[in-house]
Amino acid sequence: MPAVKETVKQVDDISVDKYKFGWSTELETEKAPIGLSEDTIRFISKKKDEPEWMLEWRLEAYQRFNTMKEPNWAKVDYPKIDFNDIYFYSAPKDIDGPASLDEVDPELLKTYEKLGIPLLEQELLSGVKKNIAVDAVFDSVSVVTTFKDKLSEVGIIFCSISEAIREHPDLVKKYLSSVVPKSDNYYSALNCAVFTDGSFVYIPPNTRCPMELSTYFRINDKNTGQFERTLIIADKGSYVSYLEGCTAPQRDEKQLHAAVVELVALENAEIKYSTVQNWYPGDENGVGGIYNFVTKRGDCRGKNSKISWTQVETGSAVTWKYPSCILRGDNSVGEFYSIAISNAYQQIDSGTKMVHLGKNTTSKIISKGISAGNSSNAYRGLVSSHRKAERARNFTQCDSLLIGNKCSAHTVPYIDCKNSSSIFEHEATTSKISDDQIFYCGQRGIGVEDAIALIVNGFCKEVLQELPMEFAVEAQKLVGISLEGSVG
Amino acid sequence: MSDTNINQDIGQQLLSYCKDDIFSQDKQSDLYGIRLGAYELFKKNGLPTSKNENWKYTNISQKLKKIPESTSDSPVPLNLNNFINNFDIMRKLKDTNDTVLVFMDGSLQMQLSIIDKNLKNIEIVSLKNDVPEWALEIISDKHSENTNEIFNLNTVLMQDGALINIKENNGKTDNIYIVHVGNNNGFFNYRHVINIQDSARVNVTELKISNRSDICALYTSSIIWKIGDNSIVNNVKYQVHNQLTVGFNQQYADIGNNVEFNSFTISSGSKLLREFRSVNCNGSRSDISISGINLLDGDSHIDTSLLVRHKAPNTTSREKYRSILNDNSRGVFQGNIIVDQDAQKTIAKQSIDALILSNHAEHDAKPELEIYADDVQCGHGATTGQISLESLFYLKSRGIPEEEARSLLIQAFLLEALDEIKDRSAIKIFGDVMNNILNRVSKGSLHV
């Protein structure tokens, strides 16, 4: 079992510092005036060289945001966020479009090296000859997008969203906020008003994206909020696999991250979206960490389309995230695979929504929640079928694992069935790692922490195997690290 | 438009009804202070709306526009023989020689009830009379910890009810039947308190039935159980309402050590029926089952909301619910299991299954788990679907006509939940009534 051995070794390696992404990079940055106001929004829009319609779009969202209230139904508890104490725009200075990696600030490159997900990851994974195109978003601004030329040969557009607004306004106008409306929820409205960058992907009809696309997000600066916006459009008969990684430095204050991700799959198209979220979770006493309030939604707009979400959530102090699928096209498929690990004082309220609107639509939800320390981990999911969604089919499995008696695990599924031909199944279990298992490992010379990492990896296997190869190794490592110190 | 009441929403109507009622109450009564407190709370919070998470799927004001006016077309039968002639089930109950309490439109009818004066271990008092100390204590305890809007409404308005105190009876099991007959239009509120002392064994069976299909009744009822250590309690409730009844049932149970508590509910009919059942496992080594079946047709809306809380170690709980939905009916199930930090070694299982027979029916389920202890086994399963076409084909290919095959499959579907009924004697008495309803629901003849 090389993968498992690898994990145990990795856990050993990193047992000295718990959060290995905890450094910050000294870079000169340019910031918007602190706080949220129309002026801030105008400033951002101007900085981004945006056309007039985009500014109006933002201001409208801001007005909607002002009329909305912060949601309080999630099982998370955090002090009220003061929007006047956050920088909504922070950009590394000197970003006049580097054409290649060589032109990028060497300090930045060092940063990427430390990350362990270097931009040219394919070299690391010897034996796997696969290319990955990366869009790196540093604080709020997309720094560099690799392999752009190669992708454009087959007609794929992969660039930062600001560039897309300038160069492909028709596509952006047509699809932006068509999946997540401006006033969908409190944080999505905020994101619409102040989003600073993000990735844009368009896959032309009948094209299979030749490489994995990837975005890497990092919050670096103090007191900044990161608001990125991702829009992926898979045109008829196309396929794309997209990876997203996130980290942040160790800081005492809480930082806000409110992203919106929209996926559109047209007829016969397939999108696979994988996330490894490892924002700084705060220290063992719950000081610092990221508020991760994310709206992710995919729209299976055409017949036979498919959207698959895979997520590994190990970071953030507070997570509020429900990647969803709207199964509009007949025969469309939605999938959601999730591992959510909470330790120390982390709070996670995550899950998915599968909205069955078309005929013969199917969905599958596999969610694994692991809570340790004083953390709280909730699965919240909705499966619903419309009257006309004949023969809709769903299978949901959510398992929770508790480590220690101070943590808690919750399951809140909503199952709304409006017609007789739908078949929905839901099952959930809660359990702990049994002493027998630990004892068995102990007998064979595996220490308690290693044994837990081993058992948890087994518990999560169903989800881990859905991840692309590049992420699977990293995710396995994370599973081990996140649970360190959970047994005392 | 002359009557301003019609323009008021149901919450306001109920509030002014409560206001009138509270002023007419005897201020010297022991319950007055509790009623007044509940009235203030109800005034403050009002009726729950669908914005309230616990009422997400049930909109009261949609189903209930106004409080039905009281009528007295059907008088209360003068004596037991008179009653038996019109109500066949009563004959069977009389033959059992057990305690039978009869309520007509929410009021206890002593002349129709059968109470053996020689039974020394059972004390039965009507809520209308002086409330004994033990009952007052249970009522005020429940009131002080409760914020449920409907429970408060019931506290303000409770007009009658049975206060039953059961002592240990040399290891013998006592049977008590509580029969509610809806006879007239009107708004009825009643409350039972059942105090089961240590080591007692008792079967409590309830029947709620609408005597006529054209009466329009609104009722709230609460039943508070206090169950002492080492006792065994089986509770079965049959609810056979007509399609016009709106009912709100509240069941609260506090359970001691080493108790076996099986509570089963069979519900059918009703324009709107809200079944709220809350069980606190306060003692260790107890085993509880909160289960039931719902049979829905016509425009029925039945909402079952469960809250099981494990507060002590080594307890087990099972919740098994099966629903059959036909016509335009809507079934709602919300079940929450909470395991406190101290409640290690809890085993809690919940399964909710719905069989939808019509394309216009809807079933919404929200099975929740809230776990704060680590050494527990908790699980829930929820399914919704239709009759398996393969099974149907299998039976048909063996010469069973389609209709019969369907009814066989429906019965099989219910059987697993029915196994949770531990007191089989009640099935003999009420079996026919239930079979008639099951036949009606399976065919979906009631196209309203």
Task: Kindly describe this structure.
The complex is a heterodimer of chains A (488) and B (448). With 488 residues, chain A is α/β, with parallel strands linked by helices. Chain A has twelve helices and 24 strands. Chain A has helices at 2-13, 38-47, 52-67, 106-115, 148-153, 161-167, 169-175, 186-194, 435-443, 448-459, 461-464, 469-482, and strands at residues 29-31, 90-92, 132-138, 141-145, 157-160, 199-203, 212-218, 229-234, 239-247, 254-257, 260-265, 270-278, 289-300, 306-313, 318-321, 324-327, 333-342, 347-350, 353-356, 362-372, 376-385, 393-403, 408-417, 423-432. In chain A, the strands form three sheets. Chain A has a ten-stranded mixed beta sheet. A six-stranded parallel beta barrel of chain A has the order 13-15-18-21-19-16. In chain A, a hairpin with a 2-residue loop joins strand 3 (132-138) and strand 4 (141-145). The radius of gyration of chain A is 21 Å and the shape is globular. Chain B is of the alpha/beta class and 448 residues long. Chain B is built from ten helices and 19 strands. The model of chain B has no long low-confidence stretch (mean pLDDT 89). Chain B has one domain. The longest helix of chain B has 19 residues, at 425-443. In chain B, strand 1 and strand 2 form a beta hairpin. Strand 23 of chain A pairs antiparallel with strand 18 (362-371) of chain B.
Which regions of chain B have little confidence, pLDDT < 50, spanning 5+ residues?
A: none
The span between the termini of chain A is 28 Å
Number of helices of chain B: 10
Strand content of chain B: 35-45%
Structural classification of chain B: alpha/beta
Oligomeric category: heterodimer
The best one-word shape of chain B is globular
Q: Largest interface, per-chain counts?
A: A-B, 34 and 35 residues
Radius of gyration of chain A: 21 Å
Q: Into which percent range does the helicity of residues of chain A fall?
A: 10-25%
Radius of gyration of chain B, whole Å: 22 Å
